[in-house]
């Protein structure tokens, strides 16, 4: 192993990330998403978003994580704002009204909290996706008894969000260069979404077929024992931490269900 180049500020962060097992990173991201959803608290969600921004800046992936998060959250946030901001049945404080549509303070508050909660979940998963190495994740899953093909498919799925965001952006740019104009009206946006979604889904299906053929050619569908030549470091402390995170996630879900059942 060669020493990291002198004067490279990203080298310590990279070395630290390489000592972290991918399953530990996945456990942190997954448990964060579960506990954020169960907590449904805007201070917690805001803390998670801030922590994800700091981690992506420290890892040098903020220039990829933040645009991908924006590509996912902007349409979701706008849809939540329209749905709950204008048509929130529990809204009492009416700020403006146009026929059946009413902008209420309660609806805006609910939409803002749900948007922040979703942003925390999306950013936690994106930080993991942009920092994990697929070969390391496949090796770690295989070492835990997960079959080779399933391990590769699972690892590819977990890291698919960045690829989808890049591909969707490329499709939109290509269609805009051919004359596609997206106005502010809902009809125009719906038509543009259909024109972009169809080639995106078709390209993902084609990519899945190519990956499946490559996996079959490399014998990942064959049964029998396997030998991995890629060693991924792990430790007792990390295994214990993963178990604690899983227990905390389950506890958060149980508490949320109990509170919902008692009206809390």
Automatic annotation (TrEMBL):
Family annotation (CDD domains): EcfT (cd16914)
Pfam families: CbiQ
Ranges that cross the membrane: 26-59, 65-88, 116-134, 240-259
Assigned keywords, A-Z: Cell membrane, Membrane, Transmembrane, Transmembrane helix
UniProt key word Transmembrane: yes
Cellular component GO terms held in the UniProt record: plasma membrane
Keyword Cell membrane appears in the UniProt entry: yes
Highest taxon in the source lineage: Bacteria
Membrane topology classification: Multi-pass membrane protein
InterPro entries: ABC/ECF_trnsptr_transmembrane (IPR003339), ECF_transporter_component (IPR051611)
Subcellular location: Membrane
Protein's name according to its UniProt entry: Energy-coupling factor transport system permease protein
Gene source species: Pseudarthrobacter niigatensis
């Amino acid at each position: 192993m060669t020493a990291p180049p002198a004067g490279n500020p990203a080298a310590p962060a990279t070395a630290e990330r390489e000592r972290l097992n991918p399953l530990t990173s996945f456990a942190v991201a997954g448990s964060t998403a579960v506990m954020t959803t169960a907590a449904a608290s805007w201070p917690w969600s805001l803390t998670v978003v801030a922590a994800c921004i700091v981690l992506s800046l420290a890892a040098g992936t903020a220039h990829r994580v933040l645009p991908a998060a924006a590509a996912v959250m902007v349409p979701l946030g706008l849809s939540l704002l329209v749905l709950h901001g204008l048509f929130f049945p529990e809204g009492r404080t009416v700020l403006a009204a146009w026929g059946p549509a009413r902008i209420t303070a309660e609806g805006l508050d609910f939409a803002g909290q749900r948007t922040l909660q979703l942003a925390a979940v999306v950013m936690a998963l994106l930080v993991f996706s942009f920092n994990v190495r697929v070969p390391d994740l496949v090796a770690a899953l295989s070492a835990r008894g997960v079959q080779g093909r399933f391990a590769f498919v699972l690892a590819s799925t977990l890291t698919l969000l960045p690829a989808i965001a890049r591909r969707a952006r490329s499709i939109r740019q290509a269609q805009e260069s051919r004359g596609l104009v997206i106005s502010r009206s809902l009809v125009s946006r719906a038509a543009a979404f259909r024109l972009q979604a169809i080639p995106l889904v078709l390209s993902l299906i084609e990519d899945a077929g190519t990956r499946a053929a490559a996996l079959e050619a490399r014998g990942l569908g064959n049964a029998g024992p396997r030998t991995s030549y890629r060693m991924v470091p792990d430790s007792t402390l990390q295994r214990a931490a993963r178990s604690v995170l899983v227990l905390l996630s389950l506890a958060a879900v149980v508490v949320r269900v109990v509170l919902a059942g008692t009206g809390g």
